[in-house]
Specification:
Largest sheet of chain A: none
Order of helices and strands of chain A: HHHHHHHHHHHHHHHH
Oligomer: heterodimer
Number of helices of chain A: 16
Radius of gyration of chain B: 21 Å
Number of strands of chain B: 16
Distance between the termini of chain B: 17 Å
Order of helices and strands of chain B: EHEHEEEEEEEHHEEHHEHEEEEHHHH
Distance between the termini of chain A: 28 Å
Number of helices of chain B: 11
Helix content of chain A: over 70%
Chain lengths: ~350, ~425
């Protein structure tokens, strides 16, 4: 999914041509700040976010096991609660869909949608057990978050705890274990290599310059705006097809969307739970009005989503103005990041 | 000020060097064309499923992967599987001796032209594929060591016995940017470089592959695929939709499992609309080319001289112009720098697949474009090159060259280490 980031870069090079000569007259050495921002964003936002994923995967396995032993409404609600929290943990990583999550094809195995309910039913019927290797070899549309969602909530979202079968629980547990495996793979790849590559740009590194790293981070932020606006939200709305909603069984889509915006904010501010330095430090220093615009656009995007009061599957029919407005605001956020933040970063970042 | 050779895709160049570098739209495009590109973008990422009651229907019954982007991660290059890995970005073609009615590979009875190692629930895949490698140590004349690995493929548990004397050819997913510009290069330009009998005696032949165009119902210049077996981006994309995902379309409306026992699971309808199939191919045609980085660096410039002195540019032809297309001004008259002549060359026994594809014999491969090659790691997280991904870096890729490229490879090997690094710096800048 393109982020249109390069269009801006091309425009700058073609129009200004000799811009590199004027690149920045700044005398302040901002290299220490740049390094602090990148280190902080990785250590306090990205890696902890993937750690959360791993933690919630464990919790989900445990909740399913508890329910297997004691099949109560309370334990069933616990599975639902954990799935939603796990989902939140995932959605707030989607503002940085670069690195191992993409290069190791993990994204497609965690969060493929739509899911193939017919084949999942068939998988359930044809197997007595669900060993790890079976799940590992399944196509994306047959595993990940959404098949678990399908079993927990049911196709119409009205499933009750007493309807969940022993075999469904077996399969859910196998799915959750596979999620844990994939979350750990992503986390370990960051901890054992990718983080270091991003923290130490240079000729021999994966990333050659600080500019390239900041472009990567902004590309991630803008990329999820495009995906959110143009795919997750627009497809079901444009085609008036609730089947195209991302989390249809749990009606969790709007929460997913808001968490995507939160993900972008986490990168921009370099904060997740603890304070830290983010890209905003550079923007506030070199272009305060742009910072204000970005902050304002965060609010517009979140407010746009909040103004959709119905579940998304209903809102695409009953609240078209609110849906279109939210799409527009998310789109505007992406454009602001690519059209104004990228050029600023290219102008002031020192390599 | 940048020289023209920084703009690898002419006006359709983007200066992006992050992991999205291969995924940018043409920067100069009409609004309606951009809408078509965006529609195709969604389809390129779409995960197909086999459930007819839901959208993105059409996967299987036999398939290699569930979406375009699952193999072409970041619109880029597939990663070679290690022993025990799932096959994600690589597939195997299969055929038997002889040709099909149009001169193409002769499909293997019961398996067709491509092995699908995955299937929808309830059906049996054609085969299980395993990979193993043998590795050998070599030395440059200056004593520096390098290693080359060669893959071997094991076909296990076929759903019916494999035919005798079959030929397989592994194929890695290639980057998909810039293909519309390569398509826009006039046929006459490419044919003018062809020298199939090496009439000029320079040791480099260059043969145009003439392949079957399904929609035009005639032979045309092949440009795409590892052996230039496809004439257009549309046919390449539609062929991949059908063969790799089992998604039937207006170019290839017959399931890849037709005539096989797995076909019983197919609903037998065209599974992607004509408009969507066109949009999918249009997306690929209008992916911009990443511009060069560090091209003014002294080491890089020296590397460029060594690249040319070693004769690499005889096949990896640096630049030429696209033609004129009244209907699609986005592609017109651009000076592009793809570093390929789009022709077939003998690459030696070491790389041979011993499988023919139209005019390409078992040792011939199309010159691979080099544009964007230096961004492979940042986009795809690896540096696996060549048709089966056996090369783990650019040095290994060069040292696998043989046949017509033997001389150039030897010149590269004879360089000092510093010079070899300069040449690699040049490649990294492309």
């Amino acid at each position: 999914m393109k982020n249109k980031l390069a269009f801006v870069i091309t425009a700058i090079i073609m129009v200004l041509y000799g811009a590199c000569k004027k690149k920045t007259n700044t005398t302040t050495d901002i290299k220490p700040l740049q390094k602090e921002i990148i280190d902080n964003t990785i250590d306090k936002v990205i890696v902890p976010s993937y750690q959360d994923m791993s933690t919630y995967a464990n919790l989900l396995i445990s909740d399913i096991q508890v329910f297997e032993v004691t099949k109560t409404e309370e334990n069933y609600l616990e599975i639902k609660k954990t799935w939603i929290e796990f989902r939140k943990a995932w959605e707030i990583t989607e503002g940085f869909l670069f690195g191992p999550i993409r290069t190791e094809n993990i994204d497609f195995r965690i969060d493929a949608w739509p899911i193939n309910t017919q084949s999942i039913d068939s998988l359930l019927a044809k197997n007595d057990s669900f060993p790890d290797v079976l799940i590992e070899h399944l196509e994306g549309g047959l595993k990940g978050f959404h098949p678990i969602e399908y079993f927990v909530w049911g196709i119409d979202g009205k499933k009750t705890f007493s309807e969940i079968t022993k075999k469904e629980l077996e399969l859910m547990k196998a799915y959750a274990k596979n999620l844990k495996l994939l979350c750990d793979q992503c986390l370990h790849s960051w901890q054992n290599g990718h983080a270091n590559s991003m923290k130490n740009p240079g000729a021999q590194s994966l990333y050659k310059s600080y500019t390239q790293i900041f472009e990567e981070m902004i590309g991630g932020m803008a990329g999820i705006c495009t995906e959110l606006a143009q795919a997750k939200m627009l497809l079901p709305f444009e085609e008036q097809n609730p089947l195209k909603e991302e989390s249809p069984f749990s009606s969790n889509s709007l929460a997913d969307y808001k968490d995507n915006i939160q993900s972008i904010k986490n990168i921009y501010y370099g904060q997740k739970t603890a304070d830290g330095k983010g890209i905003d430090e550079i923007v506030k220093t070199y272009n305060r009005s742009l910072h204000n615009k970005i902050v304002q656009q965060f609010d517009y995007a979140v407010n746009g989503l909040t103004n959709i009061s119905l579940p998304y599957r209903d809102a695409i029919f009953a609240q078209p103005i609110q849906v279109q407005n939210a799409i527009n605001e998310v789109d505007k956020l992406g454009k602001l990041l690519t059209d104004e933040l990228v050029p600023l970063i290219q102008r002031v970042v020192q390599n | 000020m940048h020289n023209e050779d920084w703009f690898s895709g002419g006006k359709q160049t983007v200066f992006s060097s992050n992991s999205g570098a291969f995924s940018e739209a043409f920067p100069v495009m009409r609004a309606n064309a951009m809408e078509l590109h965006d529609r195709g973008d969604i389809l390129f990422e779409a995960k197909f499923i086999s459930d007819p009651s839901r959208y993105n229907y059409g996967l299987g019954p036999l398939y290699n992967n569930i979406s375009c982007v699952s193999c072409h991660v970041g619109d880029g290059r597939g990663k070679a599987p290690l022993p025990g890995d799932l096959f994600q970005g690589m597939l195997l073609r299969i055929s038997i001796d002889g040709t099909d009615p149009h001169g193409g590979p002769n499909p293997a009875p019961g398996f067709g032209g491509q092995l699908q190692q995955r299937s929808i629930v309830g059906t049996k895949p054609e085969v299980e594929i395993a990979i193993s490698y043998t590795e050998q140590e070599y030395q440059f004349p200056d004593g520096e060591k390098y290693f080359l690995r060669k893959p071997e493929f094991q076909l296990n548990n076929p759903y019916i016995p494999l035919p005798a004397n079959y030929h397989i050819s592994p194929r890695m997913a290639s980057p998909v940017f810039g293909l519309g510009l390569l398509e826009a290069v006039p046929v006459s330009t490419v044919l003018a470089w062809a020298d199939p009998d090496d009439a000029n005696g320079d040791g480099i032949s260059g043969k145009a592959n003439m392949v079957w165009s399904v929609l035009d119902n005639k032979a045309m210049l092949g440009r795409f695929g590892w052996k230039a077996g496809q004439p257009t981006v549309l046919q390449q994309s539609a062929g991949a939709a059908n063969q790799d995902m089992g998604v039937t379309n207006y170019v290839f409306p017959v399931e890849n499992s037709f005539g096989q026992s797995q076909f019983a699971y197919s609903k037998g309808i065209k599974e992607i609309s004509d408009s969507n199939m066109y949009a999918l191919a249009y997306y690929v045609r209008t992916l911009a080319v990443p511009g060069r980085r560090n091209a003014a660096n002294a080491e890089v410039k020296q590397g460029q001289k060594l690249f040319n002195l070693s004769g690499c540019n005889a096949c990896h032809k640096s630049d030429y112009f696209t033609g004129f297309n009244m209907a699609e001004p986005e592609f017109n008259y651009q000076r592009i720098f793809p570093y390929t002549d789009l022709l077939l060359h003998d690459m030696g026994a070491g790389l041979a697949d011993n499988r023919t594809e139209f005019l390409a014999n078992g040792v011939e491969w199309r010159t691979a474009p080099l544009w964007g090659i230096g961004l492979t790691r940042v986009v795809n997280g690896h540096n696996n090159f060549l048709h089966d991904g056996r090369a783990r870096n650019l040095i290994e890729a060069i040292m696998w060259h043989g046949g017509e490229a033997e001389n150039s490879k030897n010149k590269f090997a004879a360089l000092s280490k510093a010079e070899r690094m300069q040449l690699l710096s040049y490649l990294e800048s492309l």
